Amino acid sequence: MTLDFTQVFSYWHVLLQGLGITLIFTLSCAVLGSLAGFVISLLRLSSFAPLRWLLTLYVEFFRGTPLLIQLFWVFFCFPVVFRLDISPWVCVTLSLVMYMAAITSETFRGSLKSIAGEQHDACVALSLTPAARVLYVIFPQALLRAVPTLLSNVVSLFKESALISSVGVADLMFVGQNISNSTARPVEFLTAVAVIYFVVAFPLTRLVGVVESRLLRRYAL
């Protein structure tokens, strides 16, 4: 077998379309999952023990099981259990958001605990409502402290999103597999897919390091 990577350029527009789908799922699910994770982290600090136990079980379940199993369960079992006819896109979005919410809730929980108690006392002294306290005081500080880890979670979600091809969503991995099968050129096209993932993920990983170092210097001053 002779390798011919020039054939990849004949399908570059199709691969870019698949990359676009991957980025859409990654960014939308990262934002929704992070917001849900922040809410979960707040609720896990509640004094109502059953709520804490339930949310802790949720977080540990989604952190302790493979994303592929979660994706398959939502895709195959969710419509049967709840008798709902939902599209693959909705199934994928739901599973990725629930997974992202679980892992980011731990990130936010750690950042919330790092906020000094004087901040909460100041909110009480200023007679801020609970909503204003969370929106204008707690959330900005927690987000700033959590940024490096959140960016790492986004990079991980981008790489994990390759699993959505297993349920027929035309992301980058799905497109690459189909082209490699139709052209009988798996080495060229799967290598191209791997390079595309790397080209997108590597700058993000470097960005995480830069942001983390700057935040560490800021807090050290």
What key attributes describe this structure?
221 residues, mainly alpha, 8 helices, MetI-like, amino-acid transport
Overall shape: it is globular
How much of the sequence is in beta strands? under 5%
Query: Low-confidence spans: pLDDT under 50, at least 5 residues?
Result: none
* Overall strand count: 0
Name the helicity range.
Answer: over 70%
Average pLDDT taken over every residue: 87
Tally of helical runs: 8
GO molecular function: transmembrane transporter activity
Pfam families: BPD_transp_1
Family: Belongs to the binding-protein-dependent transport system permease family. HisMQ subfamily.
Keywords: Amino-acid transport, Cell inner membrane, Cell membrane, Membrane, Plasmid, Transmembrane, Transmembrane helix, Transport
Secondary-structure topology with pairs:
Blueprint lengths: L11 H32 L5 H16 L2 H16 L5 H26 L3 H9 L4 H31 L11 H12 L2 H35 L1
Helix pairs in contact: 1-4, 1-6, 1-7, 2-4, 3-4, 4-6, 6-8, 7-8
Write up this protein.
- The chain is mainly α and 221 residues long.
- It is built from 8 helices and no strands.
- α6 (130-160) runs antiparallel to α8.
- The longest helix has 35 residues, at 186-220.
- The protein is globular and about 75 Å long.
- The mean pLDDT is 87.
